[in-house]
Amino acid sequence: MINMIQNAKDQVLALTEKAYEAAAAAGKLPAGVSVRAGVEIPKDPANGDYTTTFALAAAKAMKMRPRDIAEVLLENIDLEGSYFASAEIAGAGFLNFRLGSGWYAGVMSAVESEGAAYGRSDILAGQKIMVEFVSANPTGPMHMGNARGGVLGDTLASVLEAAGAQVWREFYVNDAGNQIEKFASSLEARYLQIILGEDAVAFPEDGYHGDDIRDLARAFYEKHGGSFRDASVEERHKALAQFGLEVNIPKMKSDLQRYKIDYDQWFFESELHESGYVAETVQLLTDRGWTYEKEGALWLATSRILEENYRKAGKSDKDIAKLDLKDDVLRRANGFYTYFAADIAYHRNKFAKRGFDRVINIWGADHHGHVARLKGAMDALGLDGTNRLDIVLMQLVKLLRDGEVVRMSKRTGKAISLSDLLDEVPVDAARWFFNAKPDTQMDFDLGLAVREDSENPIYYVEYAHARICSLLRNLAGEGFAVPAAGDVDVSLLSGETELALMKQISLYCETLRLAARDYDPSHINRYLVELAGCFHRFYTACRIKGEEPAVLSARLKLADLTRSVLKNGLLLLGVDAPEKM
Question: Cα–Cα distance between 353 and 385 in angstroms, integer?
Fold first, then answer.
């Protein structure tokens, strides 16, 4: 829970404010001025390690030049016992601070004392959060979008847990409605074609044409023979759909487990219908005055809900007119509820029945038009979907091999599924590459993912971890144990690459905070690549073996702490931290 970067920022402000109070008491600066100043880390190390805009922020109220204020502050700053070795003025009135060995010692102590918990925090403590992800239709194999959504959802859940939240992972199984009816019709056609011949039975134009449907129909026939040939369509559809789901869902579970993804719950849409929860939810919307009937169907006044929300958000009539708002059918004229009605009921279940404080869904970018509608429906139910429901939209995946787009599996000749991908690419590589920034289209280079060189980022990071483990083993064999942080003379770690490595280690806490704030776990990928780079540069510039004992001990400790942080980050991504490569 120790964040040395935040500690340093807090101390910069405290030192500056104390200097102002001393200067004001001596009559050198106007008293009673309230200053809201920022503290940043300069991009150029030549400008120090931390800088504050205190003097610039106070200039107007004090009616003084910022640089004059900064000069007075500098005269009154007492750095004794602080993290900082020096302070100086730059530019128009920036106060720049340079870190001393005490801060670096604090970084080393924090990593050592917190171990596997280093980087974790309690910023989301007390929050109960659901992350729903993948939720692929159980009518066929999972594809590349599912592969990407699976990693983003699973890793985001881990990031939120690291920030102190109580997290629930869920897969929503669409085992009801039109998709399942189409699934059953497709299976029925293939089943009857086995019995009567392909020319005797027409295949539905909008049916599922994949070979997996043929395989399921054949398996159903092998189990039941022709016993369902003369059954009613309703009975035959029910039996075929149930059989197909009983095959497909366990396969989905096993593929995802192979991908290192386990869920707290697989939630079935059919339960919402069978329990009457969908009907109850629609009735609640009606009772609240948000529905109307037209042409025998029941509609949700989505346009009215969203218009009210947009007005609250400050949008003008002109802005709202451009949105082309439309209403949604909840119950068709035939009495069947729509998928949207079920989706509203499902999210009401998350908030109202199971009590999640926040719900996060990982969706494909093609669902962007559904986001405001679902949030609005939650608002209409009094569940504050605007603020409690978050949707992470992920862009498409393009598979490449030798620079060419790949759409078919070399092994099967079919569209590449998650299972096909994991036959070709190691699971860790797949998880690493798919954990890219969600709002950008990604190119997944199949060749790069299996390369064993520094061009492959996952190999580069894992190699850094294995390299350190090898170093520790070799030195242990020569009698050199990793010392305790308190026994290390940190002042000996004064080289450019040593300081850079310690600073990078300290950034891990901030990286996890940003990943949780932005719902973007790819912050961790980028951090780990940079940490590995810092270590490789340190290892090249700073000899360990053969150095005099105090220097060897300090550098050995720094290497071991780097190993610890690399491992923490890799495990958070669901990726192995190998000790040998």
Answer: 15
